[in-house]
């Protein structure tokens, strides 16, 4: 993305390349190019999250096919949606051959069906298993790793789940009965079933179920107390499966139920803000009482406010922060203690630092805006981007991009200290250990003679015509970014320019744990895999 105000930090495009070719362009040693072949006509494309794999649909006569990292797949009549696994190592897509639809996984066509469920294809977390729904006549089934499961009249609309990494779970209807199916075994039947959830180890299953006009939550096959209503997405199970929490309505009032015991009643429970700690010792949520809202922690109601639009709980579940407003004033409440009041606080979902020990936000007044870190206001600005302070991974450092009062220049405020002014700056990026920080800055307008560069630990680097946000290696010792030189793109590593290309694939470059840098690029119509060896 480009930095606020000027368009610096250009959006990076994509595309990619067989055979190793050593390269040392730009004076950088240890660069290798793997030519993946010429790019064909691209109709639609997708790249993996890390930018290391690229796939596209290309026509071939009256047929079409998918090319993955330069390798063509089987010909099909039509190709629909396609997906990479989370690690980018596997690709699956839906296709049509004749009057049958099928899924192609890693280039191998699966069995044909009358219809493949739209957007039903899903990989498990480690990419080893894949499942999807399919229609066979008037019946519907789930296919796991190419093997069809039992047939039903209908499969629920919720996402297919992999509770233990070995089996798939989903809701299904046979006749008038709905049940949760794990593997190939349907559970007890009900008139209706909400979204199922599993404990972290996959050994415990809970879901809301309706029989007649009453709802209950079924945990490991055992139904709990009945209520008038239980929202289908409000059920949560603790990591060890020993605790269960959900919202429910009884007698026109709403409550949170923990292990079968209902808490205090309210007019509404904002179940999207229901937070259940990993050890099951803390339940936090936002509730409405009349025209007032409040935060309830372990059954104890907090002070009432006009509105509570944001609730944030630290990853270790020890700290709770929320944004609250009363009249024309608002504040952030941390662990029950209200902070300073302001006229406006920007609404963001994350108020706490990664370690949960610090709180930061942007407040506005008639004179402009300022960041508030741990209750202390920073320098006044015209604007702050991205609308919140950015904490380092360890929470010890904080930075943000801001514009100077009554001027069109931008600067970065780091640990409370205002840096030099530029025509534009990008958001600060911290190294994983928080010891280093880098950001993009620019002079003039990109495309109109302006130049961009990366400021690393306070030191500006070489200038380019356009530039992308930097990335650090896992140990924080190396830093890389994409840059444009004329009409060519290259990757700069530790200040040294690499080979030049027409395009760099979106999502890259990516550092590996051993320090190697890898990305995909295009030169003269060919796709390349590029590695900067450590």
How confident is the prediction overall: mean pLDDT?
89
Distance between the termini: 28 Å
Radius of gyration over all CA atoms, rounded:
27 Å
Oligomeric state, counting identical vs distinct chains:
single chain
Instruction: Provide the helix percentage.
Output: under 10%
Which spans of ≥5 residues are poorly predicted at pLDDT below 50?
A: 1-6, 8-28
SS elements, strand count: 58
Percent strand equals: over 45%
By secondary-structure content and strand pairing, the structural class works out as mainly beta
Shape: flat
Number of helical stretches of at least 4 residues: 0
Largest sheet: 6 strands, antiparallel
Tag the structure with descriptive keywords.
534 residues; 58 strands; disordered N terminus
Question: What this model shows, in words?
Answer:
By secondary structure, this protein is mostly beta strands. Helix content is 0%, strand content 50%. The chain contains no helices and 58 strands. Strands 1, 2, 55, 56, 57 and 58 form a 6-stranded antiparallel sheet that branches. Strands 11, 12, 13, 14 and 15 form a 5-stranded antiparallel sheet that branches. Strands 20, 21, 22, 23 and 24 form a 5-stranded antiparallel sheet that branches. Strand 48 (451-456) and strand 49 form a beta hairpin. The two termini are 28 Å apart. The relative contact order is 0.12. Mean pLDDT is 89; it is low at 1-6 and 8-28.
